[in-house]
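[Q] Does anyone have a clean structure-token version of this?
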Amino acid sequence: MYGWKENKEVEEKTYVNGVELMGESDGIKVVGICALIDALFPDYFENSLDYTYAAVSDAVMKWCEENDSAYYADVREEFWVGHGISEAKEAGKSVVVVEDLS
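[A] Here you go.
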């Protein structure tokens, strides 16, 4: 990807509405699904059985709507962040949430 910059490579971390970015390319900010879920449900990874799939999915989609974000997910063999960036650009979005469905 042209111009990919991982968030860990910069001195000051970058966020979208309180969620740390994975990186950025071609003007599209990339948010990993785990960072988003952690921001939405801070105790999720310790107490995931307390949350339904529907509740988490609804919260993710609501966040995407409120933050001009596309959502991209695919199986590991087909997953590539570049696809998510392309889909976000085509949809006129400035952010993409990415999820590897492995």
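[Q] Thanks! Anything notable?
[A] Residues 31 and 97 are 5 Å apart (CA to CA).
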